[in-house]
Amino acid sequence: MSLEYHKELDILTKKIYKQAGVEFNINSPKQLGEIIFGNLGMKSSKKKSATGNFSTKVSVLEELAEENEIIKEILAYRELQKLLSTYIDVIPKMVSNDGRLHAKFIQNGATTGRFSSQDPNLQNLPIKTELGRKIRSGFIASKNHKLVAFDYSQIELRVAAMLSGDKNMTAIFRERKDIHTGVASFVFDVPMEKVDSEMRRRAKVINFGIIYGMGVSALRKNLGGTREEAQKFYDNYFHQFSGVRDYLEDVKKFAIKNSYTETLFGRRRYFPNINSRIPFLKNMAERTATNAPIQGTAADIIKLAIRYAEEDLEKAGLLNKAHLVLQIHDELVYEIDENVLKEADKIIKQAMENVLERSYLHYKTDIPLLVHSGFGDNFGEVK
What we know:
Blueprint lengths: L1 H19 L8 H11 L18 H7 L4 H20 L2 H4 L9 E3 L9 E3 L11 H7 L8 E8 L2 H10 L2 H8 L4 H9 L9 H15 L4 H8 L3 H14 L1 H17 L1 E3 L5 E3 L8 H37 L6 E7 L2 E7 L3 H13 L1 H4 L12 E6 L7
Helix pairs in contact: 1-4, 7-13, 7-14, 8-9, 9-10, 10-11, 11-12, 12-13, 13-14, 14-15
């Protein structure tokens, strides 16, 4: 891949030089800005960066992509350059003597309670573009093994329904319906079978937006359309899902009073800025505090899942044939001997789905935690 991508990078470099009429350092934002806005005389609404130089951020370049072929080449160059410098040229040098890559997973690496990963960071392997996805196929299972990914389905929304006790959201999950379609059905007041893809898209934006404390302005930006439409959609959502609204409000009040929030399992996160006199800091703390119990509970669940799956595999005598190799967001990736694939798949799935009842809380809920799995010979094949 390195040879192939470097060759491609050289071709793009020559094309860019030819169209610019001069050789320059494409990786230098200053030189690139001078070529685009100076030499080539392009116009942008967001021309200057904070330092007074021309801004060459991706959003600025994308705005200009229709104007000149050189911009498309620069964007392609940037993507290749990033893949080479972050992954392709770096990762092979980090491989250990045993032929494996051992990243560090940091238990308290993220404030939400999730793991973070470094040297290298394996939690952000590219997936959006074809060129990026190819990198995933460089991670292969050892002989007679498969890589198997287990992914919690919409865990944060399930946690939101659980913690808030919202009756409409709970009903959608309990009946095992698609949450985005279900929410769209309530908000747009149409039967589920009449929900079209645009309605579902809008419901998805607000579902995830609510978890991350999105306000009306951010919602409008993500939905498109006017502020009035976004406000109406926002109000209607909270009218239909008043349990979620009340729960988020209660969390905010609790955080303002105590300067911390707690996950379902009692893990605290502190917010020293929640009573700050600086509005920006106060608002940010309030927004983060509101969704901290949801994100934090999801993080606790996946950590307990790792433990219970390990215990159950050991009980079944399969620990030497199925081992955890990666944790990414709501997903666990195991390397499993082909001969025990079916058995191990079932054990891991059950452990992940029954975390709440098995935990010291013995927490009972009628919202099922659902896990999907998929396997392949390399990480690129795993869906």
